[in-house]
Amino acid sequence: MRKSILTLVGIALAATSVTELVAQENNDTAEALPAVIVFKSGGAEQRRNVYLLSEKDGSIIYSLNVQGGSPERLNLSQLEQIGFVLPQSVEDALQAYAGGKFKTALPLLEKEAQWLARLEGVPNSPYYTVRYKQIFAMQETGDYDGALKLYELLNKSKLTPYQAGMLATVPAWPIYKAKQWDRLITVCEGLRETVDDLPLAAEVRLSFLLGEAYSRKDPEKALAEYHRAMTLDAGESAEIVAKSAIGSLNVYQRDEQVKEFFRLRGRPEFLDTAGYTIPTRAAAWVAKMLDSQQPAGIKLPKEFERFLEVYKMYDENSDSDEEAPAEKADADGK
Question: Is the pTM of this model over 0.85?
């Protein structure tokens, strides 16, 4: 018989069983995970409401009563199905994370991960969901070194493909922080080549990192990566989108054609169809996007407000919704 390990929280293995577990768990202060298990014993299938205490040597140790009692042991090879009922404290930590309150979520996630660690070996243990979100929250709050240390300790084979893909960029961020641009390019391009089926949000992060690295040596490639980050995003990486917009505007600002545009603007020799208008209009589109959408609440920096005037000159009354292309920049990128 093919085994099925069910991982949905509160799955309907038995509605009354889950209700009873939740009712008992609400009065419980012990660090035990309520669960419903289905297993084979003596050729017969059994179903039990349990409180998971730990996993050791290929067996789960559990209690039948929230108040304790004699622990029982079940070999994982006998386990057919399992459903977890997450305690409110875990739900609170996950909710803070889901709401983007990463600084609030971090200590809550760490606290829950500490006691869930004893259940690390349970199939599809929620320990990995908590650790995944903790590492991601650390990365989002700029603790790149801490995220990498935790990531290196994690058994990546226990992660879902999505989780593994999202965390694949973790080793690149300390390099970004250290401003080791050539090494960052090598690592990110390597990830792009070797990691299959990266989630879209991970692709967005890779493009941002490559944009940052290439902006120091190859402005054309930098703009391509920044624009890729901005247009690939599906709403999961608002802050990265904003940073990519600002990064691209920095590249455009250094572009010799853009400088020529602003030098000639308002003078008789200015031509509104000249080549120097192309990268300047591309920058204007980015500035307008950042100013109007303010991803992650990030506003357009004042030094780029002049591009909004360019947008008004060319695009304010345009019927086209097409995105401006990432144009070549001639800046030296320093």
Answer: no
